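INTERNAL AUDIT FORM
Audit reference: QA-55
Scope: verify that the stored structure record matches its stored sequence.
Auditor: D.O.
Record contents follow.
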Amino acid sequence: MKAAIPEVLGASPVDVSEVPLENTADAWAVPENPDKPVIVTVRSARTREEAAMADIAIVKEDDGRHGRYVARVVGVDDEAELTFTHRGPGLISADHTGAPESMRGTGAAAALVDFLIADARASGFRIIPICPYVRARYEKHPDWQDVMTVGPGEKPSIPVRTQA
């Protein structure tokens, strides 16, 4: 079964029948060059039919100070985003996750956080989980502690930058 990804993102159809259901939330890879836009397909679904209907493409945008991961779902004109701020070498804060009503229930917000975690592991940065949604997901995934600056359930603080 092939699922279409919006051509505007430059992605190809994905054969969801070959993705084991227990691994659908991990069906992406972070490219070696973090300066290039990232286009991935993520399926957070319980059945192959849901996976075909909920194809999500994620693009990373980063200007060196601020950035965002943007999720688009096949058949939905809106986008969800997870915004972040560079706080120092190898350190970002996950500031806000937002999804419009038209994307509620698609798994886009969860996919954004999952991709953030995969990107942190692949790129070697740590995350200050300021966003309440990121913190809530982290409480369900204590194995993410390797890329977080606080333990699950702990409230983070933002380091104060001093002028040199």
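Auditor finding: record pair retrieved intact. The CA atoms of residues 74 and 118 lie 22 Å apart.
Action required: none
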